[in-house]
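User: Structure please.
Assistant: Input sequence and predicted structure:
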Amino acid sequence: MMSIDPMEIESVEMSIPMELDINEMLVAEEQKIDPIQVVHPSQENISTSAFYPQVRNELKPFKVTIFDEGHTHPMTSPRRLHLVKSNRGFTKAQRSLWEQLSMVNIPPCKQFDILGVQAGGFQYIGCTQQDLYNLERDKRKEKKGQDGDMLHDYLLLEQEKNSGFCFTIKADAENKITHCFWADAISRQSYKFYGDVIIFDTTYQTNRYSLIFAPLMGINNHGQTIVFGAAFLNDETTDSFVWLLKEFLNAMPGGVPKMIITNQDPAMKKAISEVLPDTFHRYCS
């Protein structure tokens, strides 16, 4: 910051437009015009005592002799002081709790309520609800491009915990995941007892990655729905369904099912006739 010797400068009193255009200031500098006199036509009658004094040249220095501390905008009330950006932030405990809540898919609006209860009031949290949404956004940016590796590492970790867990991942030429199948030990054991009839259906691209979720399910002796395995597919072509059914049979003990129930997808019908030629194929109503 430039310092000025008060003994070498003249005295001047001024007020300037509230929103003086920086381009007009630069033009005034080049033409040696007093920038205080450059006023936008729409602001001729607007002035404020808040200003930024600057030295235009060494021949005509000046000093400020009148300074008005009044603000041109209303001040923040003490009750809203915690909402000022400079006062907002997350403690280590809050960030740790946020990570745990995010892991179980609790939305930011509910997370804010939990933090408010923990802190004894929303005014004591130290952040706003929008800050939580921004934190979630920044976390997604950090994960961008690494989601596939994270999924692979997670499945490997599950396999280390239980050797009965199996999975298969298929990627394209750009190393992007196109197919992913997995089944845990309980699902595989359930198929051994209740795998006579399986239900195969897909949900169409209901996730942020536009992947198709394809669960393979059955019914146990209590009439309860059980999951034998599940997969993510990037399309609903015959080749994708053939890949899934082959991986499913490789993972499941007990041989092929006696019946499979699906929707009326022609690609699915063709894949079943190729992989499960001896299995009765029926359509769901």
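The beta strands are 10-12, 62-64, 166-171, 177-183, 197-200, 212-219, 225-233, 259-262, 280-283.
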